[in-house]
Design a protein that fits this description.
alpha/beta; 8 strands; 317 residues; 8-stranded mixed β-sheet
Length: 317
């Protein structure tokens, strides 16, 4: 693993991949490197204009790349279902699902289905997408993988027994809302989902691997959506300084995701990030102990199935 780079990605010829939020940032960088190594990559993006522009860019940067755009709005479970159905009509198998898209530190809002936006997009949308695409992953050759992109900021928001026992509390209300706590809770959910998914795969004897990754401090447009970062505020100036001086490029931030997605020997429930925490080559990442709790994982899973209406019937506990 020391010094691992994108040049060490194994040949991906004949493999299929879906990368959510692949029109910019680490999603675009990950899609580019997977396509460069021969994978057929679907860029699953909310904006058709930005998604198609990203496809055109990749075809220019990687001649012969097999890439396509497909519309996916993770804030709308109807869109998630339509994407999964359309993918199934085009392709019988899926080797790699990278759940990368996300929003960060937004003011309070709700998704089309009434969920607090950050939890709804960052966790519930991807939970539903993964469940709906699971038959395609199971139909793929041995070695299919699911990578959930979390964040070191998961430490800002723990999911307690009260929230996990009550789906209404889990999706959040406006009272007492704090944008960074909500973001942390959604990123904790990403890790708990990975933990429980990996545990169920192992119990079922499945060859699918579930892993997680985080980019450290990467210069992407994710920060632009954070409340208080717009305009010439002190926060926006600090973020601009950090992005230009401290942050690593998006291509470097994508390396932990690419390692989790393609490197040999990645274990169930692995969590990869930059070696130095905020930048550097991929390495095993520290994670809060509550993201490794079996009971919390089971409760989050049950609540997520109830909220999304997506059942993983073929993958019992």
């Amino acid at each position: 693993m020391p010094g691992w780079s994108a040049t060490q990605i194994p040949d991906q010829s004949g493999r299929t991949a879906v990368v959510t939020g692949a029109n910019s940032g680490i999603g675009l960088a990950a899609a580019r490197e997977l396509a460069r190594r021969g994978a057929a990559v679907t860029l699953a993006c909310r904006s058709a204009a930005r998604g198609r522009a990203a496809v055109n860019r990749l075809r220019t940067e990687v001649p012969g790349a097999e890439v396509e755009f497909a519309e996916l709005d993770l804030a709308d479970l109807g869109s998630v279902r339509e994407f999964a159905q359309a993918y199934g009509r085009r392709r019988p198998t899926l080797d790699l699902l990278v759940n990368n898209a996300g929003v960060m530190a937004l003011p309070y809002g709700r998704t089309a289905d009434g969920f607090e936006t950050q939890f709804g997009v960052n966790h519930l949308g991807h939970f539903a997408l993964t469940g709906l695409l699971l038959p395609r992953l199971r139909a793929a050759a041995p070695g299919a993988r699911i990578v959930n992109v979390s964040s070191g900021f998961h430490v800002l928001g723990r999911l307690g027994p009260e929230e996990l026992a009550d789906p209404a509390r889990l999706v959040g209300g406006a009272d007492g809302y704090h944008r960074w706590t909500a973001y942390g809770r959604s990123k904790t959910a990403n890790l708990l989902f990975t933990h429980e998914l990996g545990r169920r795969f192992a119990a079922a004897g499945s060859t699918i691997t579930a892993a997680a990754a985080h980019p450290g401090y990467a210069s992407t447009n994710l920060h632009a959506g954070a409340s208080g970062m717009e305009g010439r505020t002190l926060g926006s100036r600090a973020m601009a300084f950090g992005n230009s001086v401290l942050a690593q490029p998006a291509a470097s931030g994508a390396l932990p995701t690419l390692y989790a997605a393609t490197a040999p020997g990645v274990e169930q429930n692995a969590f990869l990030g930059p070696r130095l925490g905020w930048r550097g080559a991929p390495a095993p990442s520290w994670r809060a102990k509550w993201t490794l709790d079996d009971k919390s994982g089971e409760r989050l899973w049950a609540a997520s199935e109830k909220l999304t209406g997506v059942s993983y019937a073929s993958l019992p506990r």
